[in-house]
Amino acid sequence: MKALWLSIRRSPVALTAFIVLLGLVGVALLAPVLAPMDPGAIDIRARLSPPGEGGHILGTDNVGRDVLSRIIHGARISLFVGVATVLIGGIFGSVLGIVAGYFRGWVETVIMRLVDIQLAFPSILLAVAIMALVGPSMMNVVVVLSIATWAPFCRVARGQTLSVCNQEYITAAVSLGLSDTRILWRHVLPNIINPLIVVASFALATNIINEASLSFLGVGVPPSTPTWGGMLGEGRNYLRIAWWVATLPGIALMLSVYSVNMLGDWLRDHYDPRLTDS
Length: 278
Hints:
By secondary structure, the chain is mainly α. It contains 13 helices and no strands. The chain has helices at residues 2-9, 12-29, 31-34, 67-103, 105-119, 123-134, 138-147, 150-164, 168-175, 180-217, 228-235, 244-271, 274-277. The protein is elongated and about 75 Å long. The two termini are 27 Å apart.
């Protein structure tokens, strides 16, 4: 971790992205303390107030709710959904990929055909279709996006496992009679974890966008819960007269996704310097 931190400090882009993400995490964790007002409080008399008017630093939306408070609380939803889906889908997909790459045979064939079926459907269209059936709910969003996330992890884990299993230390471990579980846990997983971390970083950015897309379409998190995508959907009809309602949460979404992507790109170059040379 110390070496990783020293490497981040030498990259201005990665350091800036890390600081932005750290700030977003802090805002999400301290949302009840940092938010100046109740994000769900409605004040029709103050609807569409411009930034700075009536004590609203970033203005209000079409029903008088404080935009800044809703952006702060929306960070919690975006980060929670993004991290939860990456953990669930990443662990599930990585386990299947390791099993497919290590045991081969019919196990690999079945798992990889499931991956092919999954990748045949665009993830966001699959998520919209399922959410339209099961209804808006945060837990439904997490489950649906986890289903759409596991396949890339599985493919990367399987490919890396195939490469690792051809190494001499794996052959030696098998010759010594070590159990499959011990070989996978002690010798395979530690040597394939770095590419999976890179995949997880890009999956996090993708799922933050997917959650915002579902909320924008009205099939994600319930409308009563403040989300960046929901704010974009509500404010798109007021861009001419109240630009701040949709623009400001859009900027927050852009900064978070851009920071995750930049950090993921740096991680890819850090763990495989050959990509930088090419």
